[in-house]
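Sample 1 of the test manifest.
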Amino acid sequence: DAGVIQSPRHEVTEMGQEVTLRCKPISGHNSLFWYRQTMMRGLELLIYFNNNVPIDDSGMPEDRFSAKMPNASFSTLKIQPSEPRDSAVYFCASSPGQYLAEKLFFGSGTQLSVL
Amino acid sequence: KQEVTQIPAALSVPEGENLVLNCSFTDSAIYNLQWFRQDPGKGLTSLLLIQSSQREQTSGRLNASLDKSSGRSTLYIAASQPGDSATYLCAVGDQTGANNLFFGTGTRLTVIP
């Protein structure tokens, strides 16, 4: 298996632009998670899905962030409009289990820079 | 809210040394505890997962222990190698609904050849 695949690896955009991050989880995994990592705040859970249904989005910073999982093999995280404080590494992870605290498999991340 | 602390933030050791990384957490009612490795510019790789009913897990040169009563876990790395250089993070699974995972800020390990 190729593991969790994220695209793009790097994204540089200007403030106010829309940004879409993509994730393909490991085939057969039931749960998908979006994390954000910064030096100041470490790893933060943004949202997670179980069987394509959003279970907990309490970590989404504000309405500018939205996430979808239209099918078991694809998810997007969208930021509109983007702001410089959104600059971070965004990770997608998947898990074969139902709960967040199961073994997680992470993608390589998307490094987002908002100028 | 569960708070997870990892000390030290950075550690340098010569190749071949055995070493211990520490993780402490404030609420002992946990679901499980995981140790991850993160290489620069990469995602996290799960190394070991200890269920709340277990005391330790081993994989190769790695051994992770869990003491819930004292709120501590250690990751023991035997005969360290330069390839072990990375940031190591622990993450505690919350027992309430098993749907919260709290990460520490990590220990950056450098193994000097």
